[in-house]
Every structure is written in structure tokens, then in C-alpha cells.
Amino acid sequence: MTKDEKREAYANDVIYGTNNEFGFDYLRDNMVLYKEQMVQRKLNFAVVDEVDSILIDEARTPLIISGSVEQSTDLYVKADGFVRMLREDEDYNYEEKSKNVRLTEEGVNKAENYFGLDNLFDAGNVQLTHHINQSMKAHRAMFRDDDYVVEEGEVVIVDSFTGRLMKGRRYGDGLHQAIEAKESLAIQKESMTLASITFQNYFRMYKKLSGMTGTAKTEEEEFQNIYNMNVISVPTNVPIQRTDKSDLIYRKMDFKFQAVADRIEEIHGTGQLFLWVRLMWTRLSSFPRC
After folding, report:
1. DSSP run (H or E) holding 83
2. Residues 50/31, Cβ–Cβ less than 8 Å
3. Are strands 191-198 and 208-212 parallel, antiparallel or unpaired?
4. Label partner for 264 (CA 20 to 30 A): which of 29, 160, 182, 190?
């Protein structure tokens, strides 16, 4: 939409849109020179769908407007070539929960030998250390077709909450360039943040804030403390038939997926899976054909 079209839309009493679009419009409004160039009106009242997903799960997700920075990309290629030689647990350690990757003492020695340095952690090597860390994260913590996809020679981020492609968005702090080096793509120039805001800070500016979701009760305390919002539970129309069981927690992701596979095999053996497929086929077959 053009600015005039957006301004016309915001002039209505009720506006429907996405949290990303509202947030970026707010940032762009704060970058204009004259008040007449703004598109949004005052932030009076918001009704948020799936409110726990936006205000709790994605609360700290930053919306960033950035501009390009003139800087050489050669160091990304060099760091990528070095990282490809490293071995996990020997040269670096990976923390699956936090997605942190750190060089071990052996890894530091290899880096100093590879780049011809006396001390990797000297003040003059801060930029190189940063590039190595980002390259290690790109190789070990960022997975193709999961965290990102490669389309038409570009790295496109996959939204971890919706699974949708976020074209035009880039990872910050050099991570996107490190992934481009990993995938042997043309490395784009780094960007500089011009304006930024999180969903939490944006929605807290509304005079009145409300929302609806099926899973807000578990985050009741956070809604109260962060947004001063009370959670009201609407009872079901009929009694709940669902049986809630305790969570199963596994030490490693591989163990979790193996347990899922074992459970599927177990259910398949009882005939439950076959009966479910048959039931769905019967229902679908009853629909009129076009």
C-alpha cells in the first residue's frame, strides 16, 4: 500500500492488520520529517488475536528498519573456511538450549595458527572473533529448510512461530552474512539499525489493550505484571473430554524424536491409526464433489 492508502485505512474507526505491519508503520512514522507524512493515528485501543503468542512468545522479537553499511565481506569467507575444519566437542562446544557455540582451548589454538595470530583475544582481533563465532553459529545452530531456506540465490528466514517465509527480513549482527558464506552465496553488505522496537514495547503504548486466545491462563501472571491485563477464563459449552497427562521431558532432541516414532509404532499396532484414517476418509467422501 502507498502512504496515502495507509493513511486512508488508518482514518477508519476499526482497522484490521498484522502486528508486523502496525509495528513497522509506527517505526516509519518516527522517521519522517513532518507530521503530515505520518500514517498512523493515536494508539487508542487494540484487540489482539492469539494474544499470548504476540505479547508473550514473540514479546521480545525486535522489528528493525536498517540501512546498508560499507564494509568488506572477505572476513566472512575466511571465517567460514576456518570453521569448516572444526570438530564438535574437540574444537568447540554447542549448547542446544541456548544455541550458543564456543571455541574450546584447542579451537582457539587452531584459530591462532590458521590466521597467524599471537593471541586471538587481543583487542585488535575483536572483529575476527565475532566473525568466527557467527560462522560457528551459522554452521551448527542454524539449519537449512528449518530456520531458513535458499531461494533464487538468497537466504530467506523462516518464521519460527508461523513457518512462513519472511522475505526482505535479515538476521542481524552479521549472522545472515555468515549463513550466506556457509551456503556459498553472494554475501550482501551488513546493515545498520536505523529504528527498532519490540512487540512488547509497541503494544504497551496503547491506552487500552485486550485480546483473546485459548491458552492465556498459564501466562496469567506475566499478563498482569507486564501489561496490567487480567485474564478471564470463558467456560466451555460442554464438559471437556480431553485427558491431560504429565509432560514427558527428554535430555536430547534425538531421544524425543525416537520416543515419538516409538509411540506412532505403538498406536499403529493397535489399529488406532487405521481407524482414524478410515474415519477421516468416510467424512471426506460424504462431501459433495465439484
Report:
1. helix 74-83
2. no
3. unpaired
4. 160
Contacts of 256 (CB under 8 A, 6+ apart): 250
Grid cell, residue 38, equals 505520518
List, for residues 159-205, the tens digit of each pLDDT value.
877 788 888 788 888 899 999 999 999 888 777 778 899 999 999 99
Dihedral in degrees, nearest 10, Cα atoms 138, 139, 142, 143: 140
Q: Determine whether 273 is exposed, middle or buried from the number of CB atoms within 10 Å of its CB (0-12, 13-18, 19+).
A: middle
Q: Kind of pairing, strands 165-166 and 154-158?
A: antiparallel
* Residue 60 predicted with pLDDT over 70: yes
Cut 0.90: pTM above it? no
Nearest to 211 by CA among 197, 227, 193, 196: 227
State pLDDT tens for residues 112-147: 999 999 899 888 889 999 999 999 999 999 999 999
Mean pLDDT of 209-225: 92
| Residue bearing cell 554475501 | 187
Place of cell 459449552: 237
96 burial (CB, 10 Å; 0-12 / 13-18 / 19+) is exposed
Q: How many CB atoms are located within 10 Å of the residue 83 CB? A: 27
Residues 54, 60, 62, CA angle at the centre, nearest 5°? Answer: 100
178: nearest Cα among 127, 130, 129, 138: 138
